[in-house]
Write a structure and sequence with these properties.
CATH class of the largest domain: Alpha Beta
Strand order of the largest sheet: 1-2-5-3-4-6-7
Mean pLDDT: 74
Low-confidence stretches: 61-90, 260-285
Number of strands: 7
Largest sheet: 7 strands, mixed
Oligomer: single chain
Distance between the termini: 105 Å
Strand content: 5-15%
CATH architecture of the largest domain: 2-Layer Sandwich
CATH superfamily of the largest domain: OmpA-like domain
Number of helices: 8
Structural class: alpha+beta
Length: 285
């Protein structure tokens, strides 16, 4: 009996190494799981963790730039908060002007340039709360009715305005408008298309001939919408056939130069000039 008990105890002692081995395997598995988790850090969660730690130990609130990497360049995260990089302005360009006095100065410069070129009678300048609007009547700026080709006067007016725009960094939006007369025949199928192509032609000249950066330019065709006066007479219709060159602030503005212009009112056929080409979106082919 005692011999059998001693034999069982001997076999149990020989199998105890399995427990140690199993513990070691379990610890190794846990180690590899932790290593895997550390190797696939969620960047957003890590940035939130870093921001929380920084704000906890720093007196001033900190805004962390997500493009700065997972770890700051400084060795001490607490004593050296991460700051967003500041992009220096482009040499030779005035930063975008947004104040009322700054916009009035831009309008004055454009008026002086037009007056010096003898073109002040072909364009009018208006200052709004968010933009400077230079209005050109289509009958004076283009060759003929229902034509989108810039004439000699139109070229001169656009080039004169561009001389001022080259010194600024403000975005520029060209808006095309027509009267309420339907288009019958000709190269354009609708007033939407006519107004958009007119605006695009002005944008293309500003970029290709006058050297305005394409990323600053956009063109919109409003068709018969947003008339400045009711289309009740030929004189009023001529006043509604117009092109507006709008010098915007750093914030996009609603359609400018119209009495009832409000953000989100009406609709427009928009064309944006990028990469050396301007295409009218939403117009007929």
């Amino acid at each position: 009996m005692s011999r059998r008990k001693a034999h069982e105890e001997e076999e149990g002692g020989m199998e105890r190494w399995l427990l140690t081995y199993a513990d070691m395997i379990t610890l190794l598995l846990a180690l590899f799981v932790i290593l895997f988790a550390l190797s696939t850090i969620n960047a957003k969660k890590f940035m939130a963790f870093k921001l929380g730690i920084t704000q906890t130990f720093s007196q001033n609130p900190v805004h962390v730039n997500q493009n700065s990497g997972l770890l700051p360049q400084q060795n001490d995260l607490i004593n050296h908060p991460v700051q967003a990089a500041i992009t220096p302005p482009t040499p030779g360009l005035t930063p975008p002007s947004s104040g009322g006095q700054a916009l009035a100065k831009i309008a004055s410069q454009i008026n002086q340039a037009l007056q010096s070129a003898g073109l002040s009678q072909y364009a009018s300048t208006t200052v709004t709360s968010r933009s400077v609007v230079v209005q050109m009547l289509a009958d004076k700026a283009y060759f003929a009715l229902d034509s989108a080709t810039l004439g000699t006067i139109g070229d001169q007016v656009v080039d004169t305005i561009a001389g001022v725009l080259r010194t600024l960094a403000n975005p520029v939006r060209v808006e095309g408008f027509t009267d309420n007369q339907p288009i019958t025949g000709g190269p354009f199928t609708s007033n939407w298309e006519l107004s958009a192509v007119r605006a695009v032609n002005v944008v293309q000249r500003l970029e290709t001939q006058d050297g305005i950066t394409a990323s600053r330019l956009s063109a919109i065709g409003y068709g018969t919408t947003h008339p400045v006066v009711p289309n009740t007479s030929p004189a009023n219709q001529a006043e509604n056939r117009r092109i507006d060159v709008v010098v915007l602030t750093d914030k996009l503005a609603a359609p400018a130069g119209t009495p009832a212009a409000t953000a989100g009112t009406g609709s427009g056929t928009e064309a944006t000039a990028t990469g050396g080409a301007a295409q009218a979106a939403g117009t007929a082919p």
